[in-house]
Amino acid sequence: MNVFEIPLQLINLQGDGFHLLVEVVVYGQAFNLVLDTGASKSALDKDTITALIDDDSQIYHLPDRHAIGVGTSSMERYAVIVPEFKIGDLIVENYAVPVFDLTTVKFAYETMQLPAVIGVLGGDILKGYHAVIDYQSNILRLFN
User: Fold this and answer.
1) For the chain, which residues make up each domain, given as ranges?
2) Domain 3-143, second-level architecture
3) Burial profile 109-118: b = 16 or more Cβ within 10 angstroms, e = fewer
């Protein structure tokens, strides 16, 4: 079994708690995601992904499914298959990931002058790769 150790960045939310950020690489570019143990799935910002792909027809609509937990249960759901989704040295190939309009999340981070984020790393990856979060060392361990 391979162990992948991924550094986490601890972000102080101006004295109102904290978030852990993890760097991922999608479409050859590095981005931050919020590590979200309460999210059932990872998700990326639709506008960011649309700007990275050659053909926005690669983003497909899931008409019978809606987002739950992003402030509403009526948000339309879309997905894209990312050829290589890298988390540290772990590469998830042909990863089908939901994409949503996360403008408000991106704006909140910008307003608080925090590092930019384009989504969340959620339970599909965390459970699927037997995640262990080491809060003392700010390390995410994934196993494959």
Assistant:
1) 3-143
2) Beta Barrel (2.40)
3) beeeebeebb
